[in-house]
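Students often ask why we bother encoding 3D structure as a string. The short answer is that it lets us treat folding as translation between two languages. Here is a chain of 81 residues written in the first language.
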Amino acid sequence: MMMNGINLKKDMIKPKHYDTGGLDVIDVCKILDLNFNRGNILKYISRAGKKDDELKDLNKALDYLQREIIFIKDETSNKKS
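And here it is in the second language, the structure alphabet:
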């Protein structure tokens, strides 16, 4: 469906800030077999600076990185117990 020259279906599913030069971030995450946290890290890093607030995206990536580090530390300590 087109509205004012915008392909609504395409732009709703894949906004311009997710354009990474022909690579689809979701496909890359699948190829690399990334979990949720790591996929979001890649997503926010790859779109940083393409949307309104670059620092907001970088902070989101940092948040997911910190969550992943905590998860791995907890998982490692549980294996030792």
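Translate back mentally: DSSP finds four helices and two strands in the chain. Keep this in mind for the problem set.
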